[in-house]
Design a protein that fits this description.
The chain is an alpha/beta fold and about 260 residues long. The chain has helices at about 5-10, 55-65, 95-100, 105-115, 120-135, 150-160, 180-195, 205-215, 245-255, and strands at about 15-25, 30-40, 45-50, 70-75, 80, 90, 165-170, 200-205, 215-220, 230-235.
Protein backbone atom coordinates (compact mmCIF):
# COMPACT_ATOMS: atom_id res chain seq x y z
CA UNK A 1 0.00 0.00 0.00
CA UNK A 2 1.28 3.45 -0.91
CA UNK A 3 2.17 5.83 1.93
CA UNK A 4 -0.29 8.58 2.75
CA UNK A 5 0.99 12.06 3.47
CA UNK A 6 0.48 13.22 7.04
CA UNK A 7 -0.89 16.66 7.94
CA UNK A 8 2.62 17.70 9.02
CA UNK A 9 4.09 16.69 5.66
CA UNK A 10 1.45 18.71 3.78
CA UNK A 11 2.65 21.94 5.43
CA UNK A 12 4.87 23.59 2.84
CA UNK A 13 8.07 25.45 3.75
CA UNK A 14 8.57 29.07 2.63
CA UNK A 15 9.38 29.40 -1.06
CA UNK A 16 13.13 29.73 -1.66
CA UNK A 17 13.18 29.44 -5.47
CA UNK A 18 10.44 30.55 -7.85
CA UNK A 19 10.65 29.90 -11.60
CA UNK A 20 7.93 31.00 -14.00
CA UNK A 21 7.79 30.94 -17.79
CA UNK A 22 11.54 30.36 -17.94
CA UNK A 23 12.99 29.72 -21.40
CA UNK A 24 16.48 29.43 -22.85
CA UNK A 25 17.83 29.36 -26.38
CA UNK A 26 21.42 29.65 -27.55
CA UNK A 27 22.31 31.89 -30.52
CA UNK A 28 18.62 32.56 -31.18
CA UNK A 29 18.12 28.97 -32.25
CA UNK A 30 15.51 26.47 -31.03
CA UNK A 31 14.72 26.59 -27.33
CA UNK A 32 16.60 24.19 -25.08
CA UNK A 33 14.15 24.97 -22.27
CA UNK A 34 10.72 26.50 -22.80
CA UNK A 35 8.14 27.68 -20.27
CA UNK A 36 9.62 26.03 -17.18
CA UNK A 37 7.58 26.60 -14.02
CA UNK A 38 8.69 25.48 -10.57
CA UNK A 39 8.75 26.47 -6.90
CA UNK A 40 11.13 24.94 -4.36
CA UNK A 41 10.73 25.35 -0.62
CA UNK A 42 13.41 26.33 1.85
CA UNK A 43 15.25 23.22 3.08
CA UNK A 44 13.74 20.99 0.39
CA UNK A 45 15.56 18.18 -1.41
CA UNK A 46 14.38 18.52 -5.02
CA UNK A 47 15.37 16.29 -7.93
CA UNK A 48 15.58 17.28 -11.60
CA UNK A 49 15.21 13.99 -13.47
CA UNK A 50 15.46 13.50 -17.19
CA UNK A 51 17.34 11.87 -20.07
CA UNK A 52 20.61 13.19 -21.45
CA UNK A 53 20.14 16.33 -23.52
CA UNK A 54 16.88 17.43 -21.91
CA UNK A 55 18.36 20.64 -20.48
CA UNK A 56 18.39 19.73 -16.80
CA UNK A 57 22.03 20.81 -16.36
CA UNK A 58 21.27 24.02 -18.25
CA UNK A 59 18.42 24.73 -15.85
CA UNK A 60 20.69 24.10 -12.87
CA UNK A 61 23.31 26.43 -14.37
CA UNK A 62 20.66 29.12 -14.75
CA UNK A 63 19.76 28.81 -11.07
CA UNK A 64 23.47 29.03 -10.25
CA UNK A 65 23.74 32.20 -12.33
CA UNK A 66 26.22 30.74 -14.81
CA UNK A 67 23.81 30.88 -17.76
CA UNK A 68 21.52 33.81 -18.57
CA UNK A 69 17.84 33.24 -19.24
CA UNK A 70 16.25 34.15 -22.57
CA UNK A 71 12.88 34.96 -21.03
CA UNK A 72 10.77 34.36 -17.93
CA UNK A 73 11.46 34.84 -14.24
CA UNK A 74 13.98 33.14 -11.96
CA UNK A 75 13.73 34.33 -8.36
CA UNK A 76 15.88 33.11 -5.45
CA UNK A 77 15.13 34.50 -1.99
CA UNK A 78 12.92 37.19 -3.56
CA UNK A 79 15.71 38.43 -5.84
CA UNK A 80 16.12 37.94 -9.59
CA UNK A 81 19.11 35.77 -10.48
CA UNK A 82 21.49 37.76 -12.68
CA UNK A 83 24.90 36.35 -11.72
CA UNK A 84 26.55 33.67 -9.54
CA UNK A 85 26.34 34.10 -5.79
CA UNK A 86 28.20 32.47 -2.89
CA UNK A 87 24.84 31.55 -1.40
CA UNK A 88 24.33 29.12 -4.29
CA UNK A 89 27.11 26.53 -4.08
CA UNK A 90 27.65 24.11 -6.95
CA UNK A 91 28.94 20.52 -6.75
CA UNK A 92 30.05 19.23 -10.15
CA UNK A 93 30.27 15.68 -11.49
CA UNK A 94 33.99 15.95 -12.23
CA UNK A 95 35.63 16.82 -8.93
CA UNK A 96 39.10 16.97 -10.52
CA UNK A 97 38.05 20.04 -12.49
CA UNK A 98 36.64 21.73 -9.38
CA UNK A 99 39.50 21.20 -6.92
CA UNK A 100 42.87 22.95 -6.90
CA UNK A 101 45.49 20.18 -7.30
CA UNK A 102 48.26 22.24 -5.66
CA UNK A 103 46.25 22.77 -2.46
CA UNK A 104 45.71 20.26 0.33
CA UNK A 105 42.22 19.08 1.23
CA UNK A 106 42.08 21.54 4.11
CA UNK A 107 43.33 24.38 1.91
CA UNK A 108 40.77 23.56 -0.79
CA UNK A 109 37.97 23.67 1.76
CA UNK A 110 39.25 26.95 3.21
CA UNK A 111 39.76 28.64 -0.17
CA UNK A 112 36.47 30.54 -0.17
CA UNK A 113 36.91 31.52 3.46
CA UNK A 114 40.33 32.93 2.67
CA UNK A 115 38.81 34.98 -0.15
CA UNK A 116 36.42 36.41 2.44
CA UNK A 117 39.53 37.43 4.44
CA UNK A 118 38.56 35.39 7.49
CA UNK A 119 41.24 35.10 10.16
CA UNK A 120 43.20 31.85 10.27
CA UNK A 121 41.67 30.52 13.49
CA UNK A 122 38.13 31.03 12.21
CA UNK A 123 39.00 29.33 8.93
CA UNK A 124 40.50 26.42 10.84
CA UNK A 125 37.44 26.04 13.07
CA UNK A 126 35.05 26.06 10.11
CA UNK A 127 37.07 23.72 7.89
CA UNK A 128 37.64 21.29 10.77
CA UNK A 129 33.90 21.14 11.42
CA UNK A 130 33.03 20.29 7.82
CA UNK A 131 35.96 17.93 7.36
CA UNK A 132 34.48 15.93 10.22
CA UNK A 133 30.92 16.29 8.91
CA UNK A 134 31.77 14.76 5.53
CA UNK A 135 33.98 12.03 7.01
CA UNK A 136 37.41 13.25 5.93
CA UNK A 137 39.08 13.21 9.35
CA UNK A 138 42.76 12.35 9.02
CA UNK A 139 42.96 13.31 5.35
CA UNK A 140 43.31 17.08 5.78
CA UNK A 141 46.93 17.21 4.63
CA UNK A 142 46.47 15.10 1.51
CA UNK A 143 46.25 16.43 -2.03
CA UNK A 144 43.39 15.68 -4.47
CA UNK A 145 45.59 13.26 -6.45
CA UNK A 146 45.85 11.08 -3.34
CA UNK A 147 42.08 10.68 -2.95
CA UNK A 148 39.48 8.35 -4.43
CA UNK A 149 36.60 9.71 -6.50
CA UNK A 150 34.20 9.53 -3.57
CA UNK A 151 36.60 11.36 -1.27
CA UNK A 152 37.08 14.13 -3.84
CA UNK A 153 33.32 14.63 -3.95
CA UNK A 154 33.31 14.89 -0.16
CA UNK A 155 35.89 17.68 -0.47
CA UNK A 156 33.69 19.52 -2.98
CA UNK A 157 30.71 19.17 -0.67
CA UNK A 158 32.67 20.31 2.39
CA UNK A 159 33.93 23.39 0.53
CA UNK A 160 30.41 24.44 -0.44
CA UNK A 161 29.16 23.85 3.11
CA UNK A 162 32.09 25.77 4.60
CA UNK A 163 31.10 28.79 2.54
CA UNK A 164 27.71 28.59 4.28
CA UNK A 165 25.79 28.44 1.01
CA UNK A 166 22.06 28.11 1.58
CA UNK A 167 21.65 26.20 -1.68
CA UNK A 168 23.48 23.10 -2.86
CA UNK A 169 23.20 22.75 -6.64
CA UNK A 170 24.42 19.28 -7.55
CA UNK A 171 24.95 18.28 -11.19
CA UNK A 172 25.06 14.46 -11.29
CA UNK A 173 27.76 14.53 -8.60
CA UNK A 174 27.93 10.75 -8.20
CA UNK A 175 27.68 9.84 -11.88
CA UNK A 176 31.39 9.04 -12.25
CA UNK A 177 31.57 6.86 -9.11
CA UNK A 178 31.36 3.08 -8.90
CA UNK A 179 28.08 1.62 -7.64
CA UNK A 180 29.21 0.93 -4.06
CA UNK A 181 30.79 4.35 -3.60
CA UNK A 182 27.76 6.01 -5.16
CA UNK A 183 25.42 4.33 -2.66
CA UNK A 184 27.66 5.36 0.24
CA UNK A 185 27.66 8.96 -0.96
CA UNK A 186 23.88 8.96 -1.36
CA UNK A 187 23.47 7.85 2.25
CA UNK A 188 25.99 10.44 3.41
CA UNK A 189 24.28 13.21 1.47
CA UNK A 190 20.93 12.48 3.14
CA UNK A 191 22.62 12.59 6.55
CA UNK A 192 24.35 15.90 5.78
CA UNK A 193 21.15 17.41 4.37
CA UNK A 194 19.25 16.49 7.54
CA UNK A 195 21.98 17.96 9.74
CA UNK A 196 22.35 21.22 7.80
CA UNK A 197 18.83 21.85 6.44
CA UNK A 198 20.25 23.09 3.13
CA UNK A 199 18.05 23.49 0.07
CA UNK A 200 19.26 20.98 -2.52
CA UNK A 201 18.61 20.74 -6.25
CA UNK A 202 20.06 17.48 -7.50
CA UNK A 203 20.31 16.62 -11.21
CA UNK A 204 20.24 12.98 -12.29
CA UNK A 205 19.08 10.71 -15.10
CA UNK A 206 18.81 7.73 -12.71
CA UNK A 207 15.29 7.00 -11.43
CA UNK A 208 16.53 4.88 -8.52
CA UNK A 209 18.88 7.63 -7.38
CA UNK A 210 16.08 10.17 -7.65
CA UNK A 211 13.81 8.04 -5.47
CA UNK A 212 16.51 7.30 -2.91
CA UNK A 213 17.16 11.00 -2.37
CA UNK A 214 14.34 13.35 -3.25
CA UNK A 215 11.33 14.69 -1.40
CA UNK A 216 9.98 15.77 -4.77
CA UNK A 217 11.00 14.76 -8.28
CA UNK A 218 10.53 16.99 -11.31
CA UNK A 219 10.44 14.85 -14.45
CA UNK A 220 11.65 16.75 -17.51
CA UNK A 221 10.39 16.12 -21.02
CA UNK A 222 12.72 15.15 -23.84
CA UNK A 223 14.43 17.98 -25.66
CA UNK A 224 14.38 20.24 -27.49
CA UNK A 225 12.06 22.78 -25.85
CA UNK A 226 12.10 20.79 -22.61
CA UNK A 227 9.99 21.64 -19.60
CA UNK A 228 9.08 20.04 -16.30
CA UNK A 229 6.43 17.60 -17.40
CA UNK A 230 5.35 16.28 -14.00
CA UNK A 231 6.29 16.73 -10.35
CA UNK A 232 5.97 13.79 -7.96
CA UNK A 233 5.78 14.09 -4.18
CA UNK A 234 7.69 11.18 -2.62
CA UNK A 235 6.43 10.70 0.96
CA UNK A 236 8.61 7.66 1.68
CA UNK A 237 10.62 7.78 4.93
CA UNK A 238 14.42 7.74 4.96
CA UNK A 239 16.45 5.61 4.58
CA UNK A 240 14.87 4.18 1.45
CA UNK A 241 15.59 0.82 -0.16
CA UNK A 242 15.20 -0.57 -3.67
CA UNK A 243 13.31 -3.62 -2.40
CA UNK A 244 10.50 -1.68 -0.71
CA UNK A 245 7.12 -2.21 -2.43
CA UNK A 246 6.26 1.48 -2.26
CA UNK A 247 9.63 2.36 -3.77
CA UNK A 248 8.82 0.09 -6.70
CA UNK A 249 5.38 1.68 -7.05
CA UNK A 250 6.90 5.12 -7.58
CA UNK A 251 9.63 3.69 -9.78
CA UNK A 252 7.10 2.18 -12.17
CA UNK A 253 5.07 5.38 -12.21
CA UNK A 254 8.06 7.53 -13.12
CA UNK A 255 9.47 4.97 -15.55
CA UNK A 256 6.24 5.26 -17.57
CA UNK A 257 7.35 8.73 -18.69
CA UNK A 258 10.34 7.25 -20.47
CA UNK A 259 8.78 4.09 -22.00
Amino acid sequence: MVSTVSEKEVLKPPVAISISGLSKSFNNEQFVLEDVNLTIGNGEFFILLGPSGCGKSTLLSMVAGFVEKTSGKLIVNNEEVIKPDRNRGVVFQQADAALFPWLTIKENIEFGLKMKKMIKQTRNDISSHYIKLVGLDGHEGKYPRELSGGMKQRVQLARVLANDSQFLLMDEPFGALDAMTRRTMQIELIRIWKETNKTIIFVTHDIQEALLLGQRIGVMSKGPSSKIEKIYDIPLPYPRTFTDKEFNYYYQMIQSHFD
